[in-house]
Amino acid sequence: MSKEITSRQQDYSQWYNDLVLKGGLADYSAVRGCMVIKPYGFALWENMRDALDKMFKDTGHVNAYFPLFIPKSFLSKEAAHVEGFAKECAVVTHYRLKNDPDGKGVVVDPEAKLEEELIVRPTSETIIWNTYKDWIQSYRDLPILVNQWANVVRWEMRTRLFLRTAEFLWQEGHTAHATQEEAEIEAKKCWMCMRSL
Question: Could you tell me the residue range of the domain that residue 74 belongs to?
């Protein structure tokens, strides 16, 4: 039995969800706030990603990947910026599980507490610029034109498939330039790539 699609006029939000689910793009996950992107939905993502990736590479960008985990001390450096999204950040405090002595599955091993908590924040400028400080020794090392494809995690209060989920696919450019003018030109170039899709 197939579910009818709610009319847009009756309930816009439900209409959207019905389209995504009935269209086979995504499904709800056992993890609250997360979704499973089904093959057809993922194929759409791959088409968009590949088109953008080609445009970025045509402008000289290269792909790189930075860590998903950011030391809390790094994130503290951007405290004013973090204030707006701090409630959405997940924190890793331990590095190991162990069998529950009562035989009830697994528990966090209290002996495996991290010396410093890690924040799940794969697009943090702090980890990227900590790396760039080693890559940039003089103006001859510029520009750096790096693009990152990543999964992002943020704890959302209200989720909606593809629009706001606890984990989602993401793209972010991280460039470094000798002058502000060069940075602005690059930003406009990338904006034009995005608009052309």
Answer: 69-120
61: its two tokens? 């960008």
Q: Are residues 113 and 64 in the same domain?
A: no
Q: Residues 131-158: what's their mean pLDDT?
A: 93
Query: 62 and 136 in one domain?
Result: yes
Tell me, yes or no, whether 10 lies in a domain: no
**Does the pLDDT of residue 193 top 90, yes or no?**
no
CB neighbour class for 58 (10 Å; exposed up to 12, middle 13-18, buried from 19): exposed
Cβ neighbours of residue 166 under 8 Å, at least 6 residues apart?
31, 32, 33, 34, 153, 154, 155, 156, 159
Mean residue pLDDT across the chain: 92
pLDDT, mean of residues 5-27:
95
Residue 115: which residues within 8 A CB-CB, separation 6 or more? none
112, amino acid identity: A
- Whether residues 107 and 95 share a domain: the answer is yes
96 and 182 in a single domain? The answer is: no
Q: How far apart are CA 155 and CA 82, in angstroms?
A: 14
39 neighbors 104 (Cβ within 8 angstroms): no
pTM of the model: 0.85
CA 183, distance to chain mean position in Å, is 23
Query: Quick one: pLDDT at residue 3?
Result: 66
